[in-house]
């Protein structure tokens, strides 16, 4: 990126998403592509979240990227607990910047989430879906720490989630495989999972297996808010007002 392009992204970009005023600073044209361009798609997602969530939630944003979801949620609910997971170092810096810009105090975890602890290749090439980073089991990519969600909740002193949002390009199946205790907990009552067909197929999985695992963990109300955006809820469990 040349200096002129860097200067073009120096100032914060202001947006109103589902009635919430937020601002973002991006480090590149690639990050800029993820900012809302017309809010309809984002509004649909956030309208549903706002109808389900309250101030006393603990919100896990897995694959937080530059922080769009966490910033909107944090601005809507100033007292909410937020834990962000973003393994890519440059993107994580933008995430930190945007959380600070919006006055949001969140825990930031610098690991990928899967079904085992260790390291894994994290590919940030431009040909990954939507230009986002993707875990690669081929071994090609940047070596990145990987954890299970169950291990983090039990060992790292982070609060247990009540609401989980995940957009991790196929690793959603391994997130679920490595988080049976967390997802089965009565306190974890709501999940929003972006499913990615081709990456799931590469892992020998599918949307159907994602749905089956969620049901096995007690989520009995499943619906797609759009083609690949799955909402899962445990009936009879609501957030405390």
TrEMBL record:
Gene3D superfamilies: Vaccinia Virus protein VP39. InterPro entries: FkbM_mtfrase, SAM-dependent_MTase, SAM-dependent_MTases_sf. It comes from Haladaptatus pallidirubidus. Residues 124-145 are annotated as: Disordered. This is Methyltransferase FkbM domain-containing protein. Residues 61-219 form the Methyltransferase FkbM domain. Pfam families: Methyltransf_21. It comes from the Archaea.
């Amino acid at each position: 990126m040349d200096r002129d392009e860097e200067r073009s992204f120096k100032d914060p970009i202001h947006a109103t998403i589902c009635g919430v005023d937020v601002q973002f600073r991006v480090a590149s044209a690639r990050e800029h592509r993820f900012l809302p361009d017309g809010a309809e798609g984002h509004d649909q997602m956030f309208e549903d979240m706002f109808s389900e969530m309250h101030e006393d939630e603990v919100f896990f944003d897995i694959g937080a990227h530059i922080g769009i979801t966490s910033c909107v949620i944090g601005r809507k609910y100033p007292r909410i607990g937020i834990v962000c997971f973003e393994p890519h170092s440059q993107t994580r810096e933008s995430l930190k910047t945007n959380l600070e810009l919006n006055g949001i105090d969140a825990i930031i975890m610098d690991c990928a989430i899967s079904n085992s602890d260790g390291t894994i290749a994290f590919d940030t090439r431009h040909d990954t879906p939507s230009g986002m980073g993707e875990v690669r089991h081929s071994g090609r990519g940047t070596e990145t720490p990987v954890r299970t969600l169950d291990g983090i909740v039990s060992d790292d002193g982070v609060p247990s989630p009540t609401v989980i949002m995940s957009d991790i390009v196929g690793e959603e199946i391994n997130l679920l495989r490595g988080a049976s205790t967390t997802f089965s907990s009565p306190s974890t009552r709501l999940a929003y999972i972006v499913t990615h067909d081709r990456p799931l197929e590469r892992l020998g999985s599918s949307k159907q297996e994602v749905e089956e695992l969620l049901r096995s963990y007690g989520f009995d109300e499943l619906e797609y808010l759009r083609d690949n955006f799955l909402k899962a809820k445990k009936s009879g469990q609501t957030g405390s007002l």
